[in-house]
Design goal:
Bound molecules: beta-D-glucopyranose
Shape: globular
Strand order of the largest sheet: 2-1-4-3-5-6-7-16-13
Oligomer: single chain
Helix content: 40-55%
Largest sheet: 9 strands, mixed
Structural class: alpha/beta
Number of helices: 14
Distance between the termini: 40 Å
Number of strands: 19
Strand content: 15-25%
Length: about 400
């Protein structure tokens, strides 16, 4: 806490020297799928002088949502008069440490970091703390006390929405003696969010598993067994194929597959399409509203996704940064000023044992084929004549 107060004072003091800063915005990523690295001049030196220089460190362009996060953060901070440095680190923690170190050397005034591995950024975080640079953990918590604030969605609720969706769709409360078969796929163990998503879902599903209403035929229920390194689609696909060939090849019916997000749901859906012997529709959950998954929802291959409006996540982040930069008191009342549904939470997340991290948590929503229009209404997606959604550019 003491460190945070000092950081804020430093920020106020540093703002005066920012007029001398250049206005270069660097955006880099060497992902195979990524656009070529680019560096552009923002051309508005007076605006950047008024704001400051913000380092935005994203994990990878190979998972769809981070492209949106990076773009929205970059656009919104620039529009508010900040200079930005945006990097993607190819899902490589060593590269992310390097990228953040470069930002610090480049004189950023504040860091926004979506961690690849919440426990692998200590070197960079300690340097940020030594330089009194505030750090906002963006979407994924970083387990280091240099973090000043956390902006995310209510990650536990994402999981409970997925679990409750399965309960409601299968009408498990009225199942009587019927047993439904289910399998589980969780996220990346290095991502602090993954256990919240899985924990939320399992808190809803476990009573039904214990009552025998749900049966995990593979017996694979613990997080480490069902986790998916780097949220990788092919890894989720391979495990799903193994589960299907080992436990369902004899015609056993599979009713539902809990997937913590869309990149894993994509792999599981592919496995079911190609390797599942049954003819019933398997209920599949997801999270994010990735384009391919929304297509699958239209086609009845995936059943739902938990949508998190990441444009709103960047609006909340910008509001928080403005408050930090101007030395405002940061408390629950700030959450009411963003114009986005969001709660201030000082209890749920810790950067180390006993060190609570003040958090601004946005609200996730369930999307099915019945309310796809809600996504179009955000202005962030368009619906083609074929009924499929594309992210608006
Ligand atoms: C995010 C999810 C995303 C996953 C993989 C998580 O930290 O909260 O929205 O699906 O990372 O990118």
């Amino acid at each position: 806490m003491k460190r945070k107060v000092i950081s804020m004072l430093m920020i106020a003091a540093m703002t005066a020297s920012l007029a001398a800063c250049g206005s270069t915005t660097a955006s880099t990523d060497s992902d195979a799928s990524a656009d070529a690295a680019q560096t552009e001049e923002s051309g508005d030196a007076s605006a950047s002088a008024a704001g400051g220089k913000i380092g935005i460190s994203m994990p990878t362009q190979s998972l769809e949502r981070w492209n949106r996060d990076g773009a929205y953060l970059d656009e919104q901070f620039k529009a508010a008069g900040y200079e930005t440095v945006l990097t993607y680190s190819d899902n490589d923690s060593g590269k992310q440490v390097n990228d953040i170190q470069n930002m610090l050397a480049d004189g950023v005034d504040l860091l926004i970091v979506a961690a690849i591995d919440g426990e692998a950024l200590n070197t960079a975080m300690n340097e940020a703390a030594d330089a009194n640079i505030p750090v906002i953990a963006y979407d994924r918590l970083i387990l280091n006390d240099a973090v000043s604030y956390y902006v995310s969605f209510d990650n536990y609720t994402v999981g409970t929405l997925q679990g409750q969706f399965i309960v409601d769709q299968l009408d498990l409360d009225n199942a009587g003696d019927t047993t439904y078969n289910i399998e589980l796929t969780a996220g990346d163990p290095a991502d602090n969010n993954a256990t919240y998503f899985f924990g939320g879902a399992m808190d809803v599903l476990t009573p039904y598993i214990e009552a025998g209403t749900l049966n995990v035929v593979s017996g694979q229920t613990d997080f480490d067994t069902v986790a998916t390194a780097q949220w990788n689609t092919d890894t989720a696909l391979e495990r799903a194929q193994n589960v299907l060939s080992s436990y369902y090849a004899d015609g056993t019916q599979l009713d539902a597959w809990l997937c913590s997000n869309d990149s894993t749901a994509l792999g599981v859906s592919q496995a079911i399409t190609s390797d599942y012997a049954g003819s019933n529709t398997v209920l599949i959950t997801g999270q994010d509203g990735d384009e391919a998954n929304l297509r699958n929802i239209v086609d009845g291959i995936q059943t739902m996704t938990v949508y998190k409006n990441v444009s709103n996540e960047s609006i909340v982040t910008l509001g928080l940064v403005e408050a930090i930069m101007s030395g405002e008191t940061i408390d629950a009342s700030l959450a009411d000023t963003f114009g986005v549904e969001c709660t201030y939470d000082t209890e749920s997340y810790e950067t180390s044992e006993g060190n609570k991290c003040p958090s601004f948590l946005l609200v996730p929503n369930v999307i099915t084929k019945d309310n796809l229009q809600d996504l179009v209404d955000t202005g962030l997606y368009t619906m083609g004549d074929d009924g499929y959604l594309s992210a608006a550019n």
